Amino acid sequence: MARHMWTLLQTACLLGLLSAEWPGLSDEEVTLRGLRYPYNYFGEYGEEQTEEETTTQTAEETPIPSPEPCKASAFTEWDKLFTMLENSQMKENMLLQYADDIIKVELQSLRGEMLQFVAQYGDSCASAIDKAARRSGAQMETRLENALMQLREFSANQYEKQESVLQQLLESSVTHLERLENCCLKSPQAKSLQARHLTQEKTDGESRVRLENTLASISSELQAIREQMTRYMRSNVSNRLPSGCETGLLFPMRSSTSNVEVTPKRPLPTKAVTICLWAKPTQVLTKTVLFSYSTTGNPYELELVLNGQNVQFTVDGETHLVEAPGVVQEGQWVHLCAVWSSWQGLASVWVNGQQAASSPGVAEGHELRSKGSILLGQEYGRYFRYLHIPETFDAERAFTGKMTGVNMWDRVLESQEISQQAQLDGSGCGNRGNVVAWGVSDIESKGGVKLIY
Q: Coil, strand, or helix at residue 334?
């Protein structure tokens, strides 16, 4: 390896010397027949013969007289310069090629020696490393086992010492307690103390029994009071109006004359409507009318009725309805809302702030007529007053119970608006409608219907 490195160093030095000395060689020139040539011109291109020698040789070979030689034109300074440059470039290329060949040969030999070294000593190095690693692992395992054995021995010794100390403490405690017990029990004070203790236990037992009996009686009395308070609160809640509703209507009985007529704040027509009210029915029968809107052209424009425990909402006659089943109980307040839109005929019934039923295609494209009449607790039916027929109603469809918070809008309310009105302890009557507003719109009660507070 050292030999190859020395050869490379010599080659580099030779290249440096030639590059440094080369420009000086081109400065020396020779003169031939009046022309100046570089010093090494003849060495580069071979030994050229002069014009006279060429003529003599030609004459000796053939007897033909030689023609008169051509006279070459004189070389200019530029020709000489180009000739010198060509010579310099050729020699430089030759030197570079020679150096490249030397470097390649040396590198290949160096690579061969390295591969031979690896092949010769690689296996022995790997085996030596493996042996050293195994030897180190075995030594570490031995040391760890020794350390663990010493730790176990130390722990066992400590455990034995602690156990012996605890045993001694227990024995001394037992001895001390026996002495105290013998001393206390044999003395007259101890005997009197035992007697008092037994007497106290008997007295405490009797007192405990009396206390338990007293607590049981108090608990039964509290339970009775709680039941009375619960009944009172239920009665109070059922009798009072929902929070926020200062007035209400009482329909005492089912009759053909009991109803309430409401005057709207603004006239219809409209293509959307929302009706909300609180109702507490005394008795639920088949088709009990809560709200009805009638016109001269259609006595059944809008109706919100109870059919048993179900709630029905009809638009433009009974053929267009949506029904929520099993949502009404006798003697309990319930908040009802009926929503309808002419676009796609979307109709829905809301009970206590939650949507209980909905249906599309209910009187789709229909428009509510104006100049109608709103009745609470009854319907006009075919006996509409604008036909100049006496106001006679069907008693079987009359409502009996309490009603409050009746409001009507000419738009579809959002679900959040409906939920706010349905809170029994909230302010449901505070959100008034723009068509019918509870506490603002004029009402006329008939047939014994009373206004309550």
A: strand
